[in-house]
Amino acid sequence: MSSFRKALKSQQRNHRERSQPGFRKHLGFLEKKKDYKLRADNYHKKQNTLTALRKKAAEKNPDEFYYKMVNTQLQDGVHMKTAEEEETTEEQKKLMRTQDIKYVEMKRVAEAKKIERLKSELHLLDAEGKQKNKHTFFMETKEKVKGTWNTLLGLDKFDLAAHLNTAPELVDRVYNRPTLQTLESRSILGATRPSEIKKLAKQRRHQYKLLAQRVEREKKMFIIGQKIQTRKDLMDKTKKVKVSKETAHTPAIYKFEAKRKR
């Protein structure tokens, strides 16, 4: 059917608007509809512009405020528009919070692994601030127990080196305390010079200091992760009551309304 209509249109006569009659040529060109349309649109456009200008002049206020006054500032005599904040939805903000939590948790786990590796190397044998170990001695008879009490009370002198069967120089050690038989049968391994021992002690103190710094950093990462998680939870549209304020070492605590999950 469409091809039949196209065939009919190809055969029909084109419509032509009549031209100016000969006895009216002295009046000029006969205006067609397309010419009238252009002239009418131009006329209405000018009329609308004049109406808008009259309204603006009538409603002019010398103390008029518009928001561009807030969003611009004068810099070197030129009005500069301030940078607009990026518009993000609640879902996008939650996703960014989730990414932040994952990053902080990743760094915290990395610090925890480094701490475990340092602890396995150092064993915390002579770390500063470490709780002193207790050494309990068991006696075979009550007389020996009484003798030990007399020694503790200052009545007798208790020879700790003889009781531990080691050299007096090694009594203060809490680790690697060989007996006299071991010292006689084997040679001393490792550093023996005072300068070497001092150097090793300095390196050990540095390792303990590094371990303390990593432990403190891991605690900070844990607190930061808790605070980010709290801010993420606050973005949910749930009624909540603030229980305690946020501090440098703890996040803010909120009590949320119980809501049934469907």
TrEMBL record:
Residue numbers spanned by region Disordered: 1-30
Entry's Gene Ontology cellular component terms: small-subunit processome
Domain of life where this protein originates: Eukaryota
InterPro entries linked: SSU_processome_Utp11
Major location category of this protein: nucleus
GO terms (BP aspect): rRNA processing
Localization of this protein: Nucleus, Nucleolus
Pfam families from the UniProt entry: Utp11 (PF03998)
Biased composition (Basic residues): 1-16
The keyword Heme belongs to this UniProt entry's keyword annotation: no
Keywords from the UniProt entry: Nucleus, rRNA processing
Role description: Involved in nucleolar processing of pre-18S ribosomal RNA.
Family named by the database record: Belongs to the UTP11 family.
Subunit structure: Component of the ribosomal small subunit (SSU) processome.
Protein name, UniProt field: U3 small nucleolar RNA-associated protein 11
Biological source species: Aldrovandia affinis
